[in-house]
Amino acid sequence: MNTSPVNSAADRPHRMDPAGGCPHAANARLLARGAVTPVVLPGEVAGMAVLGHDALREFLAHPDVAKNAQHFAALQAGGIPDGWPLKTFATVQGMTTADGADHRRLRSLMSKAFTARRVEELRPRIEALTSSLLDGLDESAADGVADLRTHFALPLPMGVICELLGVDPGHHDRLHHLSNRIVATDIGPAEAMAANREMVEVLGAVVAARTEGPGDDLTSALIAAREENGDRLGPYELIGTLMLMIIAGHETTLNLITNAVRALCAHRDQLDLVRSGGATWADVVEETLRWDSPVSYFPFRYPTRDLTLDGTVIPKGTPVLAGYSAAGRDTKAHGPGAAHFDITRGSENRHLSLGHGAHYCMGAPLARTEATVALAQLFTRFPDLDLAVPESELPRHASFVGNSVQRLPVRLRR
């Protein structure tokens, strides 16, 4: 049993690459060493990552693991500068950084908007927006090639989440750009701080507009909850909640749709299986979530005591990354074929890509609905759709948080 995070040359901390890139080769090497590994975060900040499926499942639901940054030892000791690119993940006020009663309070304010019933009521709107975007994708094609990520995979979830929140369409492009900057891990302090300031300014304008003219949207409902009971939702929590909803509500589904299309183009036999009725679009979504998780390493959780996990001690107050992309290909959980894209796994597909425990992704029903509708309509409209460039030429995300490519040029027809 290990008694410290680092006890041999083989266990030297893995340096997280701020430039991101495809995580799977590095994940395989790290998993061969164990389910938990020490890492070095940008700025030489010491951390840990939980990679193995079973270890991650235990960690995500562990009663002695917190989300509030008051448990982040280095931050509380003054060792984390303001411009640290990952600081927003730790300090933003909202559900993802709250514990216990605070987390339940914030989650209860949002939960009614994301129930399976409410999402099913949104299905006609999602289907109509999908169809309209496919028209636009076709129109944007030059010589039959279009960027599916820019013209389809992005505006679908962004349009839906902004409509739910009552955000004017004029803000959509800017909010995506700022979200992309906030989840980036390769930017400098000045750019990181500027992106956060501007995001707060844009969302402040959204709140002001909805305060002056409330509507049938989630932001108006949150403002009403704040005004009805002053301690129900503080002003920083309101902005933080909107920031989290915008980022999580579109970035992950954007990556999910992008990664699913890439997977199907590379595995035409699996695409044929869906078309023949041997599997469903829901099966494609679940296998994509496992095989190429939209989120690779999500920051942060902190043990509230020294915690032994799979034989490795994670010291109290350590910032820990949840390694979703690694857990998805853990052969101990998914068998020797874990690295294979196989949509026939069915009930055996026990991935963790939408989380586990109290912080399980509230938007999971919405993300699944958006992705299944998007894929079904896309490949019905363009049955011969394929990548326009080799997979190896697709530029990767400049982040080890998000897991996808920056562009997805596709040829719509033969």
Automatic annotation (TrEMBL):
Gene3D superfamilies: Cytochrome P450. InterPro entries: Cyt_P450, Cyt_P450_B, Cyt_P450_sf. Residues 1-21 are annotated as: Disordered. It comes from the Bacteria. Belongs to the cytochrome P450 family. This is Cytochrome P450. It comes from Streptomyces clavifer.
